[in-house]
Amino acid sequence: MTGASAPLETNPSTVRVSGSGVEWGAVIAGALFAAALSFVFVTFGSAIGFSMTSAWPDSGASAKWTLSLAAFWILAQQIGSFMAGGYLAGRLRKDAGARSSETEFRDGMHGGLVWALGVAIGALLAMSAASTVASVGAQAGRAAASIAPAAGDQMSYFADVLLRPNQPAAGQQPGQQPGQQPPAQPQPPSDATRAELSRILARSAVNREMSQADKSYLATIVSRQTGLSPEEAQRRVSDTFAQLEQTVRDAADRARRAAALGGFLTAASIVIGFAAAWWGAIRGGHHRDNNFAHSGVYLRSRRPM
Fold first, then answer.
1. What pTM, to 2 d.p., does this model score?
2. Beta strands in 177-273 (DSSP E)
3. Is 60 left (phi over 0), alpha (psi -120 to 50) or beta?
4. What is the pLDDT of residue 137?
5. Which of the four pLDDT bands, split at 50, 70 and 90, describes residue 292?
6. For the chain, the helix, strand and coil percentages under 3-state DSSP, each to the nearest 5
7. Distance between CA atoms of residues 289 and 148, nearest Å
8. What does the alpha-carbon distance between residue 132 and residue 292 come to, in Å, rounded to a whole number?
9. What contacts 280, CB < 8 A, 6 or more positions away?
10. What are the boundaries of each domain within the chain?
11. Helix (H/G/I), strand (E/B), else coil: 107
12. Which of 43, 64, 90, 102 is deepest in the core (most CB within 10 A)?
């Protein structure tokens, strides 16, 4: 050799990062921190929600305002917790030296892994908690079948509507037409009769139709218990079942809309949480490489001694 070779110059913007691409310790720490912070946010948000509601009429926030605030809080909770978890993962990663596009990408991917681990843990917990109930989509699609047999109070109400005494004109007996003999006095319904009517109504609501045999049988019971004529009893049965069907359809539609809105909000918040975790991890890596003060995230970097 005739002379020393000149040192190679390295462009800091093209430094390649070698070694393992994933530091699971930082990822797990960030995911745990995000989960803990999310729990704090959810607990605090629940307390705010309870404080805004009231059992007294014309007091407290309206239902629409409460739901809007809940939707905003869910988004804020996802963004804040995943951003903090991603920042912690990026900050705890080993110093890669000079900044490069590859370093930023790896920092961001660590934030993405924090997000993925947090979502997986949340999904497992949700599946465990919901192991004994149907999925939201199945509940919305079969709302009529699930609501009608379980709503005992609703069935009892419509049974009472069927057995409600007729209000005749002055000096006229129930079910009596002008010039006709007064019909037999109505019999007070028993608990067994009310229960039987409730079961027939519930079964018909599940099937979304009432058989002609059930209609005739209910009309006979209504006529005997209320003193209505057979035609009037038949009309009352048809009208009452129509009201019941409308009630079930309204409940199913509310369940469907709530399920759709809840699913969209959950998916949107999860996607936004990924972006927040990615950005937070990149910021954490930037603060790590630039030796930012540990007393605050947005403080000025320390000046060299």
1. 0.61
2. none
3. left
4. 47
5. confident
6. 70, 0, 30
7. 62
8. 49
9. 82, 83, 84, 85, 86, 87, 90, 111
10. 23-53+61-127+265-289
11. helix
12. 90
